[in-house]
Amino acid sequence: MPRWKALPEELDPQVREFATQLRRLVDKSGLSIAAVADRTGYSKTSWERYLNGRLLAPKGAIVALAEVTGTNPLHLTTMWELSERAWSRSEMRHDMTMEAIRITQARDALGEFGGDGPGASRPGPGTGAGAGPGPRPAASGGWHGPESPATPPRPPAASPAPPAPPAAPGRGRRRTAIFVTALVAALLVIAGAVLLTDLGGGGDDTAKVAESPPAKPSPTASELPAGVKCAGDDCTGEDPELMGCGGEFAETATTTKVGTAVVEVRYSETCGVAWARITEAAPGDTVEISSTQGDGDPQTGTVNADKDAYTPMLAVPSAAAAEACATLTTGVEGCTTAGG
Known about the structure:
Elements: H1 13-29, H2 33-40, H3 44-51, H4 59-69, H5 73-111, E1 136-137, E2 143-144, H6 171-199, H7 203-211, E3 251-258, E4 261-268, E5 273-279, E6 286-291, E7 299-302, E8 309-310, E9 314-315, E10 322-327, E11 333-335
Antiparallel strand pairs: 1-2, 3-4, 4-5, 5-8, 5-9, 6-7, 6-10, 10-11
C-alpha cells in the first residue's frame, strides 16, 4: 500500500510541487508523520492535511520541518512563499465567483419589485395610470378616441387633436423608492419600540444596562497576522491549526501527568484562546479544556489510534483562566493547575 494518497486534481501546480517536496523531505528523513508532529509541535492531523494538499502549512511549520530534517530553511521558505501566493490566488478566484453569483441573485431579486429590473415593462405613451386606450388614426385623417353611439362630430382634419402625453419616465423607479423608504421607516419605528420596551422594564435592569462596560472588540481581519483567521469568541469551537492560531502563535501554558499521559494547556495570546492537548495516551482517553471563570462551554477531544488528541479552541481572557482535564479509559482522572 503506498504511503501517500494522490494529491487533489484541482490543486494549483505550484502548491502541488511544494506538497510533493515536503513528502520527499519526510521520506528522506525516515520519520513517521507522528514523529514529525512530535518534533515540530504541530499535530499529526495537521501534518496529514499539509502533506495531502488539503491545507497549506503555515510558515512556522515549514521552518520547524526544515530544522527536523536538516534542510536549508531559506530554500524551503522561498518555495512556501510562492505556494502561499498561488493558494491565495485560488481562494480569490473562488471568492470572486461566489460574489458574482450573489450579485446576480441580488439583481434578479430587485427586478421582482416591478421597477427597473431586467425585462421589466416600462409604460408607453398614453398607457399611464387611469388612461384609456390610446388614440388611433381615422379613415378621414386626424386622430380620435374609440367610437361609440354618442360620439360627437369629428374635429376638422386641419386641427387634429394632440396625442395623449407620454407617461412620466422613471415612474417604476419612484414607486420602488417610495416602497423601500416606507419599509425602512416602519422597521425603524419597530426597532425604536423594542428598544424602549427593553430599557423601560424596571429600575434594576436599567441600571445594569448603564453600568455594563462595553465589550472589548475582537481584532479585525486586517489587525491579525497573516494566516490567522479568527480571534476571541469567533474562535470558540474551531480547530486551532485550521484557523492559524497554533504553531508560532501558541505556547504551552501548563503541563501535568495523568497516569502515563501528558496533558497540556496550549494558549495563543494572538487569538485570545486556549485548547487542551494530550499525548502518550491510549485510544478512548478524553481531554477537555474549560475556563475557570465559567466563560463558554468546555471543549472536548478524544484520542484515536494516534495516541494523541487536542480539543477545539475556547476563548479565555488569559492563560491563567484555562484548565485542561483528562479522563483515561483506566478510570484515572486529572487536571492541570489553573494559573500555572
